[in-house]
Amino acid sequence: MQMPIQPPMYSSPAMGIPPAGSTFAQPSMVIPAGGILGNTPQVPIYDDGPQTVSGQYYDSPVGQPQQNPSTWNAFSPPILPDPFAAGGAQQPYAPYGGGYGVSPNPYDIPAGGFSTYGANGPSPYRQGWQNSLEVEWLWGSATAGAGGGNSSQFGVNYDLAYTTPFIPGWLLTWTNEFRLRNWSGPRGGPGLPGKAFRFGWDFELATPKTGPISMKLGVTPSINTDFDGSLGAAAFQLDGRALFIFQMNQYWDLVLGAAYWDRVDDRIIPYAGLVYRDDFWEWRIMYPESTVSLFLGNEALGSKWAYMRAEYHVEAYDVRTAGGGSDQVELEDYRLMFGFRMDGGLSSWFTEAGWVFDRNIDYGLAANGSYTQNTTAMIRTGWSY
């Protein structure tokens, strides 16, 4: 028996752009460029940000389910009740009903009533509160120029985001960010503190993809410190970004933009690249983070994906050095990770492992200098709900 193929739901936590560990769901049946479905030209929707749904193919105004979906029996989603619907919880494929408010899209059919996992197409944005928790570990490696010795890192990342309509045609996502870093070593040179913290508040305005061009504007103030002594000016950072997404056809999107990173060495980072999607693949070939994802099929309660991710990463903290003075320290590296993720709608999880290389530790004061660290292994796992 042939079953309807549903549009995919992508949810990517932040990278600066995308952090890292994006989740995806089942892809739609791709119609050739300029193709017709139900006597209507097919127009995909793409939005490359947190709590978004991308790559959708509709046979009706934006936000409505397909009136005449394609059929195909491979990887058909199970027609089972969504376990997250129990107790009045809002389902991911009807996020604008109940406590999640009114859809920002005037064409969206009000949610509520019947909704079954794998049978109802997702709306462009999931509103309300969303949580994300990640834990990471970097194995110990030698630090050149700091008296040798190994340095390892343990980290926790937690985000609490809220998405809501802001003004007509715009959505606001407010994300509270917490980061914990624990270091062991290096003991030579100015060293690293045993722990450091980051408290950030990210504010992003985005236009839902209802035409060939959409945009995102964001600003992120944060406090980054080891709390060993008074907070210095170096503990306060202010990042910003602006992105424009151009839909070239139903397979390809062009992303152009830039970001400002407030670190020891301030940076203007180009946010640029191409995004390709078909039935089984999504290629996000971008800077500073690229992800290649392969759809593996559905299980009873979720969609499976394998992926490879490459990322340029920089973080900085105001710390007390081994000599007793305060300074700002910056940790810069590149990461290559291989992972697996499962997307169950309201809840998703991932696990990944790989290498961290081209690592540098740089201090703000010339007297403290800069150091390099050897390549090391890294594992990371996370859960979003």
Overview of the molecule:
- 0% of the residues lie in helices and 52% in strands.
- The chain is mainly beta and 385 residues long.
- The chain has a domain at 135-384: Lipocalin.
- The strands form four sheets. The chain has a 15-stranded antiparallel beta sheet that branches. A two-stranded antiparallel sheet has the order 1-6.
- The radius of gyration is 22 Å and the shape is globular.
- Mean pLDDT is 75; it is low at 1-123.
Q: In terms of per-residue confidence, which ranges show pLDDT below 50 for 5 or more consecutive residues?
A: 1-123
Order of helices and strands: EEEEEEEEEEEEEEEEEEEEE
Question: Which class of the domain at 135-384 in CATH terms?
Answer: Mainly Beta
The largest sheet is: 15 strands, antiparallel
What is the radius of gyration computed over CA atoms, rounded to a whole number of angstroms?
22 Å
Task: Determine the mean pLDDT.
Answer: 75
Please give the count of helices. 0
Oligomer: single chain
Helix content: under 10%
Per CATH, what is the topology of the domain at 135-384?
Lipocalin
The first-to-last residue Cα distance is 33 Å
β content, as a range?
over 45%
